[in-house]
Design goal:
mainly alpha, Growth Hormone, Chain: A, 2 strands, 76% helix
């Protein structure tokens, strides 16, 4: 495989955050605004987690269409087109009220709502792949951590603050105004892509790209660096799944509805976006100065301790504020380390978009299944202990922490086995 030439002029690191804001806003719509809105409408936590999971499926399976981004047209062209599709779908989602009672052609509006969210996530997943590919082929190796930190900051700040902003708009603006605002935001954030100095790609047929996709996946699964990296991505370590459900959990920490709204808008939104971004920038800095895989695992352990800390205290607005902000800060650390180690693993490869989609899709799969497990644990505990008010939230927090620790244990076992196999091969060859 011939590496693609990297241009001498690259986009300054902070601009990667701006290009990622539409991605963060769209994910925030599904993971912050939707859980809060659905909880207010009386849906249980398993339904909320299911809708969130369905919306996130494109982030797992985008590998299937990622080869198209390596087919010849510039990736920034793909970026502009996918951001435009994202803006349209977000505007449409703002106009559809989620409900099981009202139907269109026999289908409840809740599932039409989920389908529109699915379309928005599919479009923005494509834009996210384009951004990561552009970053991988244009950023110098010495600046990968910084670029990953800023890109992650835009992702997480857009998810937290953008998701809370969407929730506020859906509650306080007319559907038409909310739809227009979402579309304009996406368009403005996409402007810096016009200044990316991207090396041109050779034109290739779709059949050849699909064949190469199969070869690349097989090569990845055969190489020690590739399959161990893939296992790290698909493990529950560093998933940060609670960020998808905190807004639905807020009413249990607030004395009334108005207080719950403030917790969602201010804590999980504005402040959450700030600490997410701060964690991402610090994580990117650290990832340039230590083993990036180890950093990712260690940061994942921090999120688990944050979840356990929330179990130890009573449900008050202060505990929610401190607990969620600590968790979101640790999640920012995880995301920056993750993108830094994946980009480092790939280097300046031709067909980098496909490789990125493989690893990022594996990571998003981990986020979706841990989110569902967290939501399911909440409802099962509430049903098993109906007289215990803290049973649901404690089960959710415990499941999130437990999945992380189990993942770390499995990765540690894997690392020991790999080292032993390497030692045996060296002895046999000597």
């Amino acid at each position: 495989m011939v590496p693609a030439a990297r241009p001498s002029r690259t986009l300054p690191a902070p601009w990667w955050a701006v290009l990622t804001l539409p991605f963060g806003l769209t994910v925030g719509f599904a993971t912050v605004a939707v859980p809060f809105v659905l909880r207010k409408r009386g849906f249980d936590m398993t339904v909320i987690a299911t809708v969130s999971q369905v919306a996130q499926i494109p982030h797992v399976v985008k590998l299937l269409w990622s080869p198209a981004l390596d087919s010849g047209p510039r990736r920034r062209t793909w970026y502009f087109a996918s951001v435009g599709a994202t803006a349209f779908c977000l505007a449409l989602a703002a106009l559809v009220p989620p409900s099981l009672d009202h139907r269109v052609a026999g289908v409840p509006l809740l599932w039409i709502y989920a389908a529109v969210l699915f379309g928005a996530q599919a479009a923005v997943a494509t834009s996210g792949s384009a951004v990561l590919a552009l970053m991988a082929v244009t950023v110098a190796d010495s600046r990968r951590g910084a670029a990953a930190g800023w890109q992650t900051a835009g992702n997480l700040a857009g998810t937290a603050a953008g998701g809370a902003l969407v929730a506020w708009m859906l509650e306080h603006l007319s559907p038409t105004m909310a739809a227009l605002a979402l579309a304009v935001f996406c368009a403005v954030a996409a402007v810096p892509a016009a200044f990316v100095d991207e090396p041109p790609l050779a034109r290739r047929s779709a059949v050849a790209l699909l064949a190469r996709l199969a070869r690349e996946i097989w090569a990845t699964l055969r190489s020690p660096e590739g399959w161990t990296g893939l296992l790290i991505c698909v493990s529950p370590v560093g998933a940060g799944a609670l960020t998808n459900l905190f807004s639905a959990l807020a009413p249990e920490y607030a004395p009334d509805t108005a207080s719950a709204e403030r917790l969602v808008f201010i804590v999980t939104g504005v402040l959450g976006g700030i600490v997410n971004a701060a964690g991402a920038l610090l994580g990117g800095y650290v990832a340039d100065r230590m083993n990036r895989r180890l950093a990712y695992v260690l940061f994942g352990a921090v999120t688990a301790f944050c979840a356990l800390g929330m179990i130890a205290f009573s449900a008050t607005p202060r505990v929610f504020t401190l607990g969620t902000l600590a968790y979101q800060f640790a999640n920012g650390l995880c995301y920056a380390a993750f993108y830094a180690f994946v980009v480092e693993l790939l280097g300046y490869r031709d067909g980098v978009t496909t490789q990125l989609a493989l690893y990022v899709g594996a990571s998003n799969f981990a986020i979706t299944y841990v989110t569902w497990l967290d939501g399911y644990s909440y409802d099962r505990a509430r049903a098993a202990f109906p007289g215990v008010p803290w049973a649901g939230r404690s089960a959710m927090l415990a499941m999130d922490a437990l999945s992380t620790f189990v993942g770390i244990a499995l990765l540690w076992f894997m690392m020991i086995r790999v080292r032993r196999l390497r030692a045996r091969r060296i002895e046999a060859s000597g």
